[in-house]
């Protein structure tokens, strides 16, 4: 008999990662995941899913390193197992190139990807507008496969999935959940009234170009080409506070021009589709717990949202952090329980 109940709000990569971590680590908890949108209709489905990131300004770098390392250490064995194609997790090698010397020639995650090194002059020759580059192998985690695979894993661990919009945390408290975990991404803006969360619109194209084997990412990620399992993702845009979910044909044209200047053969590639997602951005990702008065009850709420453009990259690491916070909440509620 399960003695404690935990509800996770969010059906994207952060919600499913968190729900799986909790359900697998705490078998005596009954875990329910609630979301109003599931794959293929989440922001996570739009992500290229490449593990790469820029640091958040006010979170200790060691903590961000740990999140990156935990995520790649979780995904690498999947990429190298017989589950790889079903889970949508693959290794991806390529180049990050810069027109100017970057502040961090060696990014904070360089030790966790494979074979990180500075590009040679010979390699840089094909990018005459670029002065500097980094070559490495990382993981690409394609959420259109990964999310259904994670859902199976969650159900196998006893988790339950409900499709429903949560208008107010009070609704969850009334249903008697012991702990609420908030992985609602951009939804946190209204669900918990967080005015620090804002959208950064991203548009990407999927093209057929099976001859491309290496990723190319230009500096700050304005333009990128990411070969994947069935197509190549080319992007992107970063439009701050832009809520438009519809495809902008001018953006598509601009993306194709920018990416073809990096990889001329793309001008011959067939476009398979175009998608738009709103990155759930925040100055700093929020992974913390608080007690919230809901009706007459003080209910522990663990937040895990605001990952911006790095939600896949940090998904497992921040999920483990959230699991630790859930454990603490349960400890405090049942001091004698063996948690
Ligand atoms: C074009 C583009 C490319 C990207 N590429 C990458 C990349 O290569 N690597 C990378 O790491 N990241 C990338 N990202 C960023 C990544 O997509 C996000 O950081 C990540 O998807 C955030 O995941 P999430 O689970 O927090 O949010 P979402 O995927 O948006 O999920 C939020 C979930 O919460 C649910 N929800 C919200 N509010 C409520 C509510 N009130 N009631 C019920 N349910 C609710 C939603 O229905 C949804 O299921 C990219 C993003 C874009 C747009
Ligand atoms: O920046 C990248 O390379 C991909 C990404 O995370 C995004 O578009 O948000």
From TrEMBL:
Cofactor dependence: FAD
Gene Ontology molecular functions: D-aspartate oxidase activity; FAD binding
Family according to the record: Belongs to the DAMOX/DASOX family.
GO biological process, one term: L-aspartate catabolic process
Organism: Salmo trutta
One annotated Gene Ontology cellular component of this protein: peroxisomal matrix
Entry-linked Pfam families: DAO
Residues where D-dopa binds: 224, 279, 309
EC number: 1.4.3.1
Domain FAD dependent oxidoreductase: from-to ranges: 6-320
Gene: DDO
Keywords from the UniProt entry: FAD, Flavoprotein, Oxidoreductase, Peroxisome
Catalytic reaction equation(s): D-aspartate + O2 + H2O = oxaloacetate + H2O2 + NH4(+); D-glutamate + O2 + H2O = 2-oxoglutarate + H2O2 + NH4(+)
Entry function: Selectively catalyzes the oxidative deamination of acidic amino acids. Suppresses the level of D-aspartate in the brain, an amino acid that can act as an agonist for glutamate receptors. Protects the organism from the toxicity of D-amino acids. May also function in the intestine.
Name of the protein: D-aspartate oxidase
Superkingdom assignment: Eukaryota
Residues annotated as binding FAD: 36-37, 43-44, 166, 308-313
SUPFAM superfamilies per the UniProt record, alphabetical: FAD-linked reductases, C-terminal domain (SSF54373), Nucleotide-binding domain (SSF51971)
Protein location: Peroxisome matrix
């Amino acid at each position: 008999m399960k003695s404690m109940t935990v509800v996770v709000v969010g059906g994207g990569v952060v919600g499913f990662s968190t729900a799986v971590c909790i359900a697998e680590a705490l078998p005596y908890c009954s875990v329910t995941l609630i979301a109003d949108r599931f794959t293929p209709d989440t922001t996570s489905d739009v992500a290229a899913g490449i593990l790469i990131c820029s640091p958040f300004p006010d979170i200790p770098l060691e903590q961000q390193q740990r999140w990156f390392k935990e995520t790649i250490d979780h995904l690498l064995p999947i990429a190298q197992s017989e589950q790889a194609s079903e889970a949508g997790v693959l290794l991806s090698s390529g180049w990050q190139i810069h027109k100017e010397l970057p502040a961090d020639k060696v990014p904070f995650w360089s030790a966790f990807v494979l074979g990180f090194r500075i590009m040679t002059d010979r390699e840089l020759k094909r990018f005459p507008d670029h002065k500097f580059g980094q070559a490495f192998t990382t993981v690409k985690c394609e959420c259109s496969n990964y999310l259904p695979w994670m859902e199976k894993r969650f159900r196998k661990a006893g988790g339950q999935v409900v499709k429903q919009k949560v208008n107010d945390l009070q609704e969850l408290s009334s249903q008697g959940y012991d702990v609420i975990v908030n992985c609602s991404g951009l939804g946190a803006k209204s669900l918990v009234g967080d005015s620090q969360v804002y959208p950064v619109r991203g548009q990407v194209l999927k093209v057929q170009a099976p001859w491309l084997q290496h990723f190319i990412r230009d500096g700050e990620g304005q333009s990128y080409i990411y070969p994947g399992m069935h197509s190549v993702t080319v992007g992107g845009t970063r439009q701050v506070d832009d809520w438009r979910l519809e495809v902008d044909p001018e953006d598509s044209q601009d993306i194709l021009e920018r990416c073809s200047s990096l990889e001329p053969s793309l001008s011959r590639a067939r476009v398979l589709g175009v998608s738009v997602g709103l990155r759930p951005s925040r100055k700093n990702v929020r992974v913390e717990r608080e007690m919230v008065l809901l009706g007459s009850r003080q209910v522990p709420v663990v937040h895990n949202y605001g990952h911006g453009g790095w939600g896949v990259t940090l998904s497992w690491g921040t999920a483990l952090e959230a699991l630790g916070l859930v454990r603490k909440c349960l400890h405090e509620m049942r001091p004698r329980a063996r948690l």
